[in-house]
Design goal:
302 residues; mainly alpha; single chain; two-stranded antiparallel sheet; MetI-like fold
């Protein structure tokens, strides 16, 4: 009877998961396989509608992407890493500070926490346009503010200079991602029993000692989740950068996502665009596997 119940439970569980499996195979698995096949062919605007003329060239598209004298692909990967690390660093520390603040009970806490969520709820394209106007060389509020503080003497062309353009898109992405970090970390903070803090207080532990000896170790799984998911979300950012700079100036803010889009839908080199997208997928796959391993290690430790 027990074996029969186990089998029926297994079949029932399989039937519940079957719609999700079918959905993933059709809308995720099939496009991924087609994209991989496309990256191994030579498909452009002339041969896109002529499958018979689509020549199989193996990994030539990948080799060409990385072996060019001035490889934009390599530069886009470096730019994406700079953009991702710069964004995550400030998003995490600001989000963690706000999480510590809003985990306390004080008048207006719910209101200010809700206001902080506006940047996360706002569509990314709208946020991109907002920051594009803010960083504008003429009439932009950033230049006006810095000139009023006498930090700048003349307006700076933020989005037309390579270094300042990267800074601008990082600042915009930090503003968007802070609420995501804050909410996940607040959730982690709520799992810490109040008795632990009371015991630490009775033992004479200071605030910094409590933070580093109790709070951070006890929300380590939440911190790892925030950092890993933040890396994945930031590494594949497209719309914000495309709205603000379109990868310019002179490829200074060209990310892997924007480069793949440019190859496919502006230069109509569909196979190269697919290859660039697969490079992005491979990097995120490695990060995803690392995240799953961390989760499994945490569960085994518990």
């Amino acid at each position: 009877m027990k074996k029969g119940k186990m089998k029926s439970g297994t079949y029932l569980g399989f039937m519940f998961t079957l719609p999700a499996v079918i959905y993933m195979l059709i809308f995720i698995g099939y496009p991924m396989i087609e994209n991989l096949i496309l990256s191994l062919k030579n498909v452009d605007v002339y041969t896109f509608a002529q499958p018979a003329n689509q020549q199989f060239i193996g990994i030539a598209n990948y080799v060409e992407l990385f072996m060019d004298t001035n490889s934009i692909m390599t530069k886009s990967i470096i730019n994406t890493l700079i953009f991702t690390v710069g964004s995550i660093f400030f998003q995490f520390f600001i989000g963690f500070g706000l999480a510590l603040l809003f985990s306390k009970k004080f008048r207006g806490c719910s209101f200010f926490r809700g206001v902080t969520m506006i940047s996360w709820l706002l569509p990314v394209t709208v946020a991109g346009l907002l920051f594009k106007f803010m960083f504008a060389s003429s009439g932009g509020i950033i230049n006006q503010f810095l000139m009023a503080l006498h930090i700048l003497d003349t307006p700076l062309d933020w989005l037309l200079e390579p270094r300042s353009a990267m800074t601008a898109i990082i600042v915009a992405n930090i503003w968007i991602g802070i609420p995501f970090n804050m909410m996940l970390l607040i959730t982690g903070l709520t799992t810490i029993p109040s008795e632990v803090y009371e015991s630490a207080n009775l033992d004479g532990a200071g605030k910094l000692q409590t933070l580093f000896s109790i709070t951070i170790p006890m929300i380590k799984p939440a911190i790892m989740s925030v950092l890993t998911l933040g890396f994945v979300y930031t590494f594949k950012v497209f719309d914000l950068v495309w709205v603000m700079t379109k990868g310019g100036p002179v490829n200074a803010t060209e990310l892997v996502s924007t480069y793949a889009y440019r190859l496919s839908f502006e230069e109509f080199l569909f196979s190269k665009g697919a290859a660039a997208a697969n490079v992005l997928f491979l990097i995120l796959l490695v990060v995803g596997c690392f995240y799953i391993k961390l989760i499994n290690d945490e569960e085994e430790a518990m």
